[in-house]
Design brief:
mainly alpha, 2 strands, about 50% helix, about 90 residues, globular, 5 helices, two-stranded antiparallel sheet
Length: about 90
C-alpha cells in the first residue's frame, strides 16, 4: 500500500487543531512521522495497523507513538512559564 493511499480522506475534528484535517497531515505532522493521535482518530476508518506496519519501521513508530503527548493545558502552562522567565 502506498503511503499516499489515504491522503484524500479527512476527519471532521482533529483533537490538536480543533477542526477538520486530511490524513496526509496526520501521517507527517510529527517530523514526517505520524501524529501521536493517529490511532485514536483513524483506526475506525481505515486499516491503520496495516498502513503503519507497511510504511514505517518499528523504531519510527516507537518514536512517533511511544512518547506521551502533552495536553493543551500543559503546553499553555509551559508557554506561560517561559514568558515569565523573559
Amino acid at each position: 500500500m502506498a503511503i499516499e493511499a489515504y491522503d484524500s480522506l479527512s476527519i471532521w475534528r482533529c483533537p490538536s487543531l480543533g477542526g477538520p484535517v486530511p490524513f496526509s497531515h496526520c501521517r507527517k505532522t510529527n517530523n514526517n512521522l505520524p501524529c501521536q493521535s493517529i490511532v485514536a482518530c483513524w483506526s475506525n476508518q481505515i486499516d491503520l495497523q496495516a498502513f503503519l506496519s507497511e510504511n514505517y519501521t518499528h523504531e519510527e513508530l516507537q518514536q512517533a507513538l511511544g512518547v506521551p503527548k502533552k495536553s493543551r493545558i500543559e503546553t499553555i502552562l509551559e508557554a506561560l512559564d517561559k514568558s515569565k522567565q523573559k
